[in-house]
Design a protein that fits this description.
globular; 9 strands; alpha/beta; 2 domains; 9-stranded mixed beta sheet; Spore Coat Polysaccharide Biosynthesis Protein SpsA, Chain A; 341 residues; 12 helices
């Protein structure tokens, strides 16, 4: 293990991923490139995720500098990033998730793409390969070419399709904009927006991560009406936190006028849905309905009916989830029966 500072840090973020974190961490330790700083970081898991990290860090013998750390309490992705930026030393920070697998050449290719820009780019992305819970690889999930996004107006005109699990970003970008708000869970667009209005962003045209499908953004099989309501409120809170962060970053970059209308267009329906879920009386629901008059009438009414009749909404969503899972399993079975080319 080298004791010299590295110019690139790999930040592996995990939470309750004991079943996957060993392979995820080993894929980081197996990177074939210059010596790296690798931080295995646990967000106060309740399973053995951190113990696995500790074991791997203690037993590692190789060129990279490996440490394991743990948050004292669960802080969420935004604050987890903040703490890791403060704890690391690299100029380029590579994201790794506790249930994904990085290809051995991932960091090297990200560094090469960064150097090809004269190290001016503030974010480097890549494609990923869909990985299911049975460790079966599926299709390549291609993200957008970020090099064509040159301004805040480009970003607002068409948000890029991105997957944060494949990102690397610069320390200087994070220092310019400051910490991510603790409530931010979806950091993908925040990071890309920051890069586009700073040094720019590029995409490596190769899949460098086996990306575990699912995650907390995916709708779970709701166990009850209350479970469905709490999940919906949590997701809406995360969406609104992302929007507030984007507005703050746009203001700091003096690009607020370029993106305000675009963000507000998303903010109004999310806020309406949140108010519906939080309403306790029919009068409160109708007040929210009237105040959101800029939204289509029938859309507002349909969303309100979901809240007024939660039992029916719950049954419909549960049936749709079961149908989706059946189709997904059928697809896997079909692919397994197909002969290899």
């Amino acid at each position: 293990m080298t004791t010299t500072e590295s110019r690139v840090s790999v930040l592996l973020l995990a939470y309750n991923q004991e079943a996957y974190v060993r392979r995820a961490a080993l894929s980081c330790l197996a990177q074939e490139c210059e010596p790296l700083e690798i931080i295995l970081s646990d967000d106060a898991s309740t399973d053995r995720t951190f113990e696995v990290m500790q074991e791997l860090a203690a037993s590692y013998r190789g060129p990279h500098r490996v440490t394991a750390r743990r948050n004292a309490s669960n802080v969420g992705i935004g604050e987890h990033y903040n703490q890791l930026v403060a704890a690391s030393c690299g100029a380029l920070l590579v994201t790794a998730a506790g249930d994904d697998i990085s290809t051995p050449d991932r960091v090297r290719r990200l560094i090469e793409a960064w150097e090809a820009t004269g190290c001016r780019a503030d974010l480097i992305a890549s494609h990923v390969i869909d990985l299911d819970d049975d460790d079966q690889l599926h299709k390549v999930m291609r993200v957008d070419d970020l090099s064509i996004y040159r301004s805040a107006e480009d970003w607002a005109r068409k948000r890029p399709y991105i997957i944060g699990a494949g990102h690397a970003f610069t320390r200087r970008m994070m220092e310019r904009f400051g910490p991510i708000a603790p409530g931010v869970f979806y950091e993908d667009q925040v990071m890309v927006f920051r890069a586009i209005v700073s040094g720019g962003a590029v995409t490596v045209d190769a899949p460098l991560v086996h990306y575990r499908r699912g995650g907390t953004s995916r709708k779970p099989p709701f166990e009850s009406q209350e479970h469905m309501k709490q999940w919906t409120l949590r997701q809406l809170g995360r969406e609104l936190a992302e929007m507030h962060q984007l507005l703050a970053d746009a203001q700091l970059a003096s690009r607020l006028s370029a993106v305000r209308d675009h963000i507000e267009l998303r903010h109004v329906p999310a806020r309406y849905l949140q108010l519906l879920q939080l309403s306790l009386t029919g009068a409160e629901r109708w007040a929210a309905f009237r105040d959101a008059s800029s939204l289509p009438y029938w859309w507002r009414l349909r969303k309100m009916l979901h809240v007024v009749f939660p039992c029916t909404s719950y049954r419909i969503r549960r049936a749709l989830h079961d149908l989706h899972e059946w189709r997904y399993r059928q697809g896997i079975a079909t692919r397994r029966r197909e002969p290899l080319p």
